[in-house]
Amino acid sequence: MTERLHPPARLSWFVWGLGALLYLIAFYQRVAPAVITDQLMNDFAIGAAALGNLSAFYFYSYVAMQIPTGIIADRWGPRKLLASGAGVAALGTALFAFAPTLWWANAGRLLIGASVAVAFVSMLKLATHWFAPRQFALASGMALFMGVVGGVFAGVPLRMLVDAFGWRAVMGVSALLTAALCAAIWLRVRDDPAEAGYASHFHGAGHGTGQHGSIWRGLMEVLSYRNTWILVIVPIGIAGSVLTFAGLWGVPYLRQVHGLETKTAAAITSSFLVAWALGGPILGTWSERMGRRKPIYVITSVLVLICWTAIIFLPLPVWPLAALLVATGFLSGNLIIGFAFAKESVPARLMGTASGVCNMGPLMGGMFLQPAVGWMLDRHWSGATANGVRIYDAAAWQAGFTMMYACVILSLVLICFARETCCKQSAN
Fold it and tell me: What number of other Cβ atoms are within 10 A of residue 388's Cβ?
């Protein structure tokens, strides 16, 4: 009998790439409110706190779905999750696009967050089957890169489309494109290369009902590892600050404090995201070559704190500020080290559950910090408005961003207590 070969790289990246497109859409939806803050405030007659909450409705459901997503990915496989997620995301986007009131807009954002929550964990699951183990960190980093491509599109290009056609029409077209992706995933994605006649790269137990014991017992086992808790909390400050600044408050901050046009401000936040995307695979690959996770994670976290100190508390001119944001984004790509770190900290049979649990961290950062910054802005609002939109002074923005700064300090302290895995999978 002829021994089956592993799938060609082109096919592996194609299958994985269809899943990655849903994550691209997820990231696009995650940061799109940043360039339509004025339109949302005007259409729904809301202030910063309510806007932060509207944006965060995406994160509320996204975070809530992470543990169920990881467990279902372990038991049923990613294909059904990705296809159903894309379908529901299309419905949620349509609801948001045509929402007559804030309540319906919140409902649309909630539905979008819950549905696209399946994308990242499903991509990690596909990577363990379609790629060799040594490529996992690269695939994780490329996943972040694909996401950030969506975030970049939600910057200047989205603003240009919104200026030309209005935000509701653009979101309506987004719903149609997401529905098309749903069909493509169902037709072409397979959970394992064996389903396409190739040898699998996965050497653990296969997925399937009854093979992983009690869902609750598996979750409790994942949570029994100290690294799990640490690697959930650390991204709240580091990655959460990226999502809070680039995903909502960066553009209005740069407009109101530094007097930039919306497109220029969006270009800077997009550069911030691009640097984040590049930092992920580079730092992940660096940790693979060193055979260590913790040292790079700690060093980059220290540098992130230094950068945010300058950004928040020093009166920087706009272009040095932009350069520091790019550096902060690159260093915050250490998020990818955390995902590999978490996967290696538990037995292979629990990788999907561990990935789902640890993916809660960055999103909890956005969930907590976006409304928190908005709440602080409203508390320090001087009463100024322009065209029906509240204007916040530099002191109010500094008070709001201090919420992010405190979380970054907590992240740095906690990562020092993580147990090194030496890039090896836990056997028990």
Answer: 9
